[in-house]
Amino acid sequence: MTIDVLASIGMDPPYIGIFLSHGQNTVLLKTGASQNDISASLLRGLKQAGRAIGFQDLHELLVSVPIIRLCTSMTQNALQLHLGQPIGLLVSTELLDVGRRVLAALGLPNGMVIDIPAPHDPEAGDRVRLAFNHLLNQGARCIGICLAGSWRNPMDEHLIRGFIDRRYPAHYLGSVPLLLSSDYEKRLTDEELIIALAIDCYLGRMLQNHINKIKTTLTREGFAGELLVAEGCGGLSLVPYVSPSNSFMATQAALFTVAKHWFEQIGKKGIALKIGSYSSEISFVDEREDANTPLSDILDAKTMGGIASLLTRRSGRFVLTAPDNLTDLGKNYLNRQERAPTLLDAMLVLGYLDPLNLGRTGLALDRSAARDAMAGIIGGGTGDIEATALRACHDVADNIACVIRRQVKMRGISLLASAFLVCGEAGGILACAIAERLGWKVIYTIPCGSMTLTIGAMMMGLKQHSINIKDPSVLQSIIGVRTQTFDIIESSEQKRQVYLGHALGWCDCQVWRKQDLEEGEVLSGPILIEAVDSVYWVPSGWRYVVLTKGMNRIEREGSM
User: Fold this and answer.
1) Reported pTM
2) Strand 236-238's sheet: what is its strand order?
């Protein structure tokens, strides 16, 4: 086995990112992921990336890789899209309210959480039996038990489980597992315990199937090493220890890991924004040493939608909401006739994106379908479509700016003293609008910006369990990567029409390829900077500056 082959995978449908490094050869690949068969897309991408660094076929590559690091947005996306299974919770009375709020956040009826007495109560047996029967009859596929203070004394929860096990043997319950909050880390509060318990009941089976399918697929093709999965705490976990509650917000942890490195390069603290497919991550790199995100965030409306989220009008303004199901977004998650409009549709209508290819990579899109979707939200007509799309982008920028401003105030950090970094397919398009609202005059962009899951996973270390792994010294390989492979549709497009508002209408804007720019170049807006994995919109009054170490800059004219 070749021990110097480094590998990481980032899965954020509808895309998969792959990083491979072998000797002096390094490749970073981004490819579209089929909704119907992500495994086939993964194998195709690995085969293509392996060839780029000298391996003849997929089997030769996989038998040479000792460890694959995986960062997947599956848990976060499934929570956003309410894709979990029906669950039930048995809780002590003082946790009934938080239990109901957790189920509401998961899109489940609050009648699936029932309060039960402590096991020493004379009525405990009958009440537990009735509650358990009710949950089973209502279709619960996993049931969690959370009693207040169980982190101090787990005995009561074990007595309840013993009571259930005696009355409902395994052959009766079938595949309905029981989870206990007392099995979790002692440092969690009662509220955090019930949230973690609910997430694991809700998504545990789906996540395990997802991870196991990936590992089985890799093993079948020759991989015999360890698969490590990124966690929300910023570390990696072995497959048997993976759970939705510890992989929740792994994408934000990846962003934090990448952003922290880049902010260290410029000697600043800062705020990083990534706008992905279904959610947007904001990472604050301040005095804290890690990316720990409170589990209680699931109870608050802090998770913003992403580029594929639906545009919904509330009180006269546009907000991003999760679709009811993936079919709302079409065969390949994105862009289909006769459906609700998305942020992606608005950006296509305005001309920010090439309809042939999102960010020059991945899935072909349909501008006419985007126009039809935007027309639907305004009741038909054509004259207001562009204005509505522009309003939607402005409203989303307003919302992101408000979230950043609120979080900055809560953390007690200086907004203007913080650097601003953007990445993601849509991050670069909205960056200047967000910066204008917050008073920033400089925006930093990073290479391979939308592939933070892939890069972040490669930069994470194993934080638990007995396995001897050295953290790879590959930061410079990642930052200085020159060999890149992408599923792209080449284009010779030099200009693109972009809608700039009622007063200016449609304007021809220069399109520059990021990879063709030389160090020291300064390009004034309005222009589009198109990388193979991201697009940057530089409006009038701003300019794009190519720097030396890969972290380029968008800045206000006359600000530096």
Assistant:
1) 0.86
2) 236-238, 226-230, 67-72, 5-12, 15-22, 25-32, 484-486
Assigned domain for 184 exists: yes
149 near 114, Cβ under 8 Å? Answer: no
Contact present, 306 and 278 (Cβ < 8 Å): yes
Q: What's the confidence (pLDDT) of residue 412? A: 86
Q: Are residues 168 and 97 in the same domain?
A: yes
Written as six digits, the tokens of 472 are 């790879």
**pLDDT, tens digit, for every residue of 376-388?**
887 655 558 999 9
DSSP string of 147-169, one letter each residue: -TTTTT-THHHHHHHHHHHHHS-
- How far is 531 from 528, CA to CA, in rounded Å? 10
Residue 488 in this model has a pLDDT that exceeds 50: no
If asked whether residues 95 and 182 sit together in one domain, one would say yes
Residue 499 has pLDDT above 70, yes or no: yes
pLDDT for position 34: 67
- Domain boundary among the residues 205, 222, 257 is at 205
Q: Cis omega (within 30 of 0) on the bond before 154?
A: no
CA atoms of 270 and 267, how far apart (whole Å): 10
Whether 69 and 17 map to the same domain: the answer is: yes
In a domain, 154, yes or no: yes
Helices 452-459 and 250-266 sit at what angle, rounded to 10 degrees?
Answer: 80
Euclidean distance between the first and final Cα of the chain, in Å?
51
Residue 419 — φ and ψ, nearest 5°? -80, 155
Please indicate, yes or no, whether residues 92 and 189 belong to a single structural domain of this protein.
Answer: yes
**What are the tokens at 479?**
């930052």
The answer to whether residues 496 and 480 touch, using CB atoms and an 8 Å cutoff, is no
List, for residues 284-308, the tens digit of each pLDDT value.
887 665 555 555 565 554 456 787 7
Q: Are 24 and 474 in contact (CB under 8 A)?
A: no
pLDDT at position 171, please? 58
For tokens 């039930």, what's the residue? 88
Structure tokens, 448: 């391979």
Cβ within 8 Å of residue 505, ≥6 positions away? 499
Among 41-50, 153-162, 272-281, 356-365, the least confident range = 356-365
Of 79-83, 249-253, 304-308, 468-472, the one with minimum mean pLDDT is: 468-472
Contact 16, 42 (CB under 8 A): yes
CA separation (Å) from 441 to 352, 452, 531, 547, 556?
22, 24, 22, 16, 5
Q: How many residues does the chain have?
A: 560
pLDDT at 25: 83
Per-residue pLDDT tens over the stretch 408-455: 888 888 888 899 999 877 889 999 999 999 999 999 988 776 688 888
And the tokens for 417? Answer: 């003293």
Of 371, 163, 382, 421, residue with least CA distance to 268: 421
Which range of residues forms the domain containing residue 60? 5-78+208-249+451-486
DSSP secondary structure letter of residue 142: S
- Any idea of the CA torsion for 367, 369, 370, 372, to the nearest 10 degrees? 130
